[in-house]
């Protein structure tokens, strides 16, 4: 036993700190190498995937390498009955790993599809190096022969899109507080990419179908194949070909290919508006003037008297009126035409944290059909003033300091 336990303890702490610093240094170098990844896709170079991962990982890639045979067994030979999703990248199957008794989601990339070898490699590296409660957990992958397969933790409640835009009769619509909780977690996932990753990572594919939900409706971002390293040093943006989903792309990125973290903030604003309104960003089934969500919302966002017209009818008027105003103000700031005028994602997190954690008092104003019918002329202005006054008193009693953080709403 040491005579100097304090010194010994401090020495251990210093060693741990040094090991952590070394690990973070290696992770930064691996992350920075994304920009230079170049993987051939011809049959003679297929083994480069495994070699590249082994070379770049150097002990940091903790995801398991699965044999193709094991994943066939887990999904019953990729039985269509086990399919839980499909997109441009390929198909996702529910599987069961006998070795660990774990239920997983198995994404089999389409060999002729959108997501290629480079995207596969980027996704494996990002999810192996970045760990956060709001990023989906990568269990492992398979790069055997022609097969490109990703194995994720299974998210029992599917995607936000399933519960917001494609609601089946057996599902209840999301209530207001659950929507705010999901928005908060999704924003924190982006915050991890933008401000915790070094160099920063731009997601580039933020949309409702890529936000997965666990049994408690906690959100996790998925599908990182389109992710790009953000600008570093004196650079203000990165130039790249325009990728992503129509309607979610920021205007400056769609027109010039210039990508920044503010491009993700715009995409977040689109999804947040979908969550508030229950409308798809592009819906050709609606009248022509309502088919593009952002264009439809722009004039309404300039008139507070019309804010209640934007709330999802499936909420059945059951939401705090002031929270609706604040949420729409956050969405409006994220959807600014000029990238520089949009907030940082950390500021968005601060604002939505307030909305998600705010307790709805019994006497706090809610929108109801009765109050809606009075919102005409002078009585409308009087009603709105009363609601804001009551809301401000509640906020002062509840958390005066946090209310100051939501400066974004006062600009609206």
From TrEMBL:
Q: What is its EC number?
A: 2.7.11.1
Residue ranges with Basic and acidic residues bias: 402-412
Q: Which domain of life is it from?
A: Eukaryota
Enzyme kind, highest EC tier? transferase
Q: Can you list the GO cellular component terms from the UniProt entry? A: peroxisome; plasma membrane
Q: How does it sit in the membrane?
A: Lipid-anchor
- Designated name of the protein: non-specific serine/threonine protein kinase
Source organism of the structure: Glycine max (Soybean)
């Amino acid at each position: 036993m040491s005579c100097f336990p304090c010194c010994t303890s401090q020495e251990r702490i210093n060693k741990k700190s040094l090991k952590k610093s070394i690990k973070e240094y290696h992770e930064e170098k691996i992350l920075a190498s994304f920009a230079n990844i170049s993987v051939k896709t011809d049959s003679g170079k297929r083994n480069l995937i495994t070699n590249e991962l082994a070379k770049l990982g150097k002990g940091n890639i903790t995801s398991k390498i699965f044999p193709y045979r094991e994943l066939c067994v887990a999904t019953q030979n990729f039985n269509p009955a086990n399919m839980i999703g499909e997109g441009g990248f390929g198909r996702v199957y529910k599987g069961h790993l006998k070795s660990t008794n774990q239920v997983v989601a198995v994404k089999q990339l389409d060999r002729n599809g959108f997501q290629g070898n480079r995207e596969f490699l980027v996704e494996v590296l990002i999810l192996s190096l970045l760990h956060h409660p709001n990023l989906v957990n990568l269990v492992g992958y398979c790069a055997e022969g022609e097969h490109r397969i990703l194995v994720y933790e299974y998210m029992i409640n599917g995607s936000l899109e399933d519960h917001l835009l494609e609601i089946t009769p057996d599902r209840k619509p999301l209530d207001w507080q659950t929507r705010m909780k999901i928005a908060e977690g999704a924003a924190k996932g982006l915050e991890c990419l933008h401000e915790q990753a070094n160099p920063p990572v731009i997601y580039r594919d933020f949309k409702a179908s890529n936000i997965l939900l666990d049994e408690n409706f906690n959100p996790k971002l998925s599908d990182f194949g389109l992710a790009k390293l953000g600008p570093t040093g004196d650079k203000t943006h990165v130039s790249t070909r325009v990728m992503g989903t129509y309607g979610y792309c920021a205007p400056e990125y769609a027109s010039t290919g210039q990508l920044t973290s503010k491009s993700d903030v715009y995409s977040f604003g689109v999804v947040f508006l979908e969550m508030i309104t229950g409308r798809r960003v592009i819906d050709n089934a609606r009248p022509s003037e309502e088919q593009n969500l952002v264009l439809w919302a722009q004039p309404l966002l300039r008139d507070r008297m019309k804010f209640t017209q934007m709330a999802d009818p499936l909420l059945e008027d059951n939401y705090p009126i002031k929270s609706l105003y604040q949420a729409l103000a956050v969405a409006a700031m994220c959807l600014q035409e000029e990238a520089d005028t949009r907030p940082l994602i950390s500021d968005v997190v601060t604002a939505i944290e307030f909305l998600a954690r705010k307790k709805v008092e019994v006497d706090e104003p809610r929108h109801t059909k009765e109050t809606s019918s009075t919102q005409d002329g002078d009585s409308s202005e009087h009603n709105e003033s009363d609601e804001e006054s009551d809301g401000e008193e509640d906020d002062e009693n509840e958390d005066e300091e946090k209310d100051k953080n939501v400066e974004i709403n006062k600009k609206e």
